[in-house]
Amino acid sequence: MRRFFFMRTAVGRGLMFGAGGVHLAVVGVLLMLHNRSIIVDTLSLGQATLVMLGVAAGAVALPERLSPDRGAQLAAGAVAGLAAAAPIALLAVAIGTIRLQSIFVALTPDLLKLLTSDLGLGWGSALLLGGGLLAGLIGAALRVCPPAIRSTLIAAVTAVILAGVFEELIQLMLQYEGPIGAVRDTLYVWNGLTPLGAVIVFVVAAAVHQAWAIFGRHRGTAPDEGQLRRQRMIRAGVALLVLAIMPVLAGAYIGQVLMLVGLYILMGMGLNLEVGLAGLLDLGFVAFFAVGAYTTALLTADSPHALLHLGFWMAMPVSVVLAVLVGVVFGLPVLGVRGDYLAVATMGLGEIVRVLVLSDFAAPLLGGAQGVLQIPKPRLGDVVLGSPVQLFYVTLVASGVAAFVAWRLENSRLGRAWMALRDDEDVAQALGINLVRSKLLAYGLGAAFAGLAGSIFATMLTSVYPSSFQLLISINVLALIIVGGMGSLPGVVLGSIVLIGLPELLREFGEYRYLFYGAALIVMMQWRPEGLWPSEVRRRELHAGETTAELDQGADLLPAEPR
Amino acid sequence: MSATAIDRGPWLTALARINAVDIVLWALRIGVLLVVVVGTINELIKDPYTAAQWFDFLMFGLTLGSIYAQIALGYTMVYGVLRLINFAHGDFMMCGAFAGYFVATPLENSGFLDTHPVAGMAAILAVAIVVSTTIALLTERIAYRPFRRAGGLAPLICAIGVSFFLEQTFRGMFGSDVKAYPSPSWQRSAFQFGSLQIPRVDALVIVLAVLFMGLLYLIVQRTRMGTAMRATSEDPEAAALMGIDVNKVVVFTFILGGAMAGIAGVFYAFVYKQVYFYMGFEPGVKAFGAAVLGGIGNIPGAMLGGFFLGLVESIGPSVFLDGLGIPAPYQLRDLIAFTLLIMVLIFRPQGLLGERMAKKRA
Q: Do A348 and B341 touch (CB under 8 A)?
């Protein structure tokens, strides 16, 4: 009887993963993933996703607190894997028998081929179900096996997947003659890993992981606080250095991507002051970005709309100052509006700005839908900073300066006032914090970052259009600081890389970007509201009152950080 | 004479307390008022429109308003029960419109919709209601239930996520193109009253929307579940102590709201003759404004707010924007709606009829 109860849990969880798989298929993500191969002609990212769904279902089939028994774990895993495969097999049968493509555009014959491994409906579905069972079993086995083996296997598989998915980038960076070129030729053929390459990556990653574990264990006692901090600083420094020399190694395309990431880091740090520190959920943030871009455009462009013909370096500070002014003006009327109403009010303000810029009413000044064209690139002496890589360094310097300012602000009197404001406005006021001043400074300083980003954006694109400044930008920025960790500077960087950089690198992802953003917002808010790289204060706040056991369970969902 | 504060008199003391923020807010009020008044007077002097044209604006405003009112009901009911701005509510409407599209198109192509308007409309609306209600219930169960009793920004951010997730799911499933909604022959003509005419679609939408809203009002006022819903919205804890199953009430609220959104989606699509994945956003935000305008949590208020917003949006551009000599005032229609939304949020967050909620929010 008790065993039967376990099975119901397993079937339920399995079906959830199956429903997720069906969603991915119907929306078209699965087929898109299928077009990116991990191991050439052997394994695509789409197939890997299907397998991982089964493995994940098996791994979570039976919570350990319900039954520590290994046999029950394995059985539940197999059942969950089967349950996860069932809806997907049903979908395959449905595509094969009914003409669904006239309604659901993604349910193409190609998708059917992927789902049934091109074996025909009967054998294909059988393979799906059998594979699901096996994957579930593997998932459960991973769960019950010793942690050392589990983490090594996960690390090795992750390495293979990363090496396959980012083959373009890695191949670009290995583009040399001699031994490096030979390594590349062994690992890769034109669009993915060779089977031999996959095995090599797997073995090397497993070995490195093992070595790391042994090396780490030999160091003896746990490091103290200062040591930890120093380690963290070193790691951050190395990451920054890699980021800084990456475009030189990998070329203009990566430079372009990283430059975009840099712009979003700038905006993220600005919105972070508003949302993360001061707790003012601002959905009209894009307005400040637009002010920065349009100011730079109108001050520098070689077009009839231009007011002056300054250089970029003159126009940039003006843009920032103007953005601050607009931020304050923007903040003034909504000073008394709180919480969720503030979000809607600021969104309305942002939309008003966009509608105005787009209208014929403002067209004589701002160029209407055609925008302002022919914005010159910045010059440094005689050098025109025209290439994406050069502009990336401009962005990097700007981000660095901005990060320093944001970091100092966070630990300043003002920063602490903002945090008090975020936690309880009434109490903050009772403690003598000037609400008007603090809030206006939050809007103004947040806007400064966005204005700077907008200014660089204008010169990057050499033209500005109203359609570049939609609500979606605000949502992008919000999503990245939430995924990274509200109120945390490294979180902003991580969030930008994950949410802006990755979709740019995996170009076909771009189409589904907002699907993932939406899912990320829901998932993060439910399971990890403090973000991937939370600030210390925030983590303590959000998990106050929880037992450490629950904290550990939450940490299991993410790859363990190397100590 | 000594220069102490006491000697200044009450009037001067009050004046001294006014700070920069008050001045800005007053300037904003006066500015908006000036635009409206000056624009209207100018327009009355110019008088470029005939009575029939004014009547057209009015009818269009009522049509839009009845749709906004239906959407606003969903916001207001969910807010009343959960204190959550269901940011995805506009997207429930989009789901209904899409579901209706996939019923209406084959019906139209086979000629059924032309020959059996009542049965055809009933089928379209029924499917739209079922789909949008199902999605509303799934959303509640998966995305919102874990946040029961949670405060702060997390539920709202999650709701924004749901909104994007739904939009992009529909985009992936049905493509990103704008699809033309079928327009059966009996919808295309208009009723004539002398020089005035009412397009049949408008008449249909207004009459049906009022009927459905009346039905909803009866359900909320007369049935046991409706009473439980009002009790929960008044005080969730006390309602739970009285033996009301709050979970059931929430589900019931999402059923009602989802159904209204589905109907509104079909109507919106019939009026604008198109569906696409992003169509729910704008009417959603505007209807939220309507709900706040009427006093959030207040059901008659939401209906009133919806009609008011529809009328302002359709008549506003031709009255005061045209009067100010602004080119192409119709482009700024959304500007009026958003300005109204912001003005309400800033100056009267309790809305026109919402005194009760005002105390709790303040």
A: yes
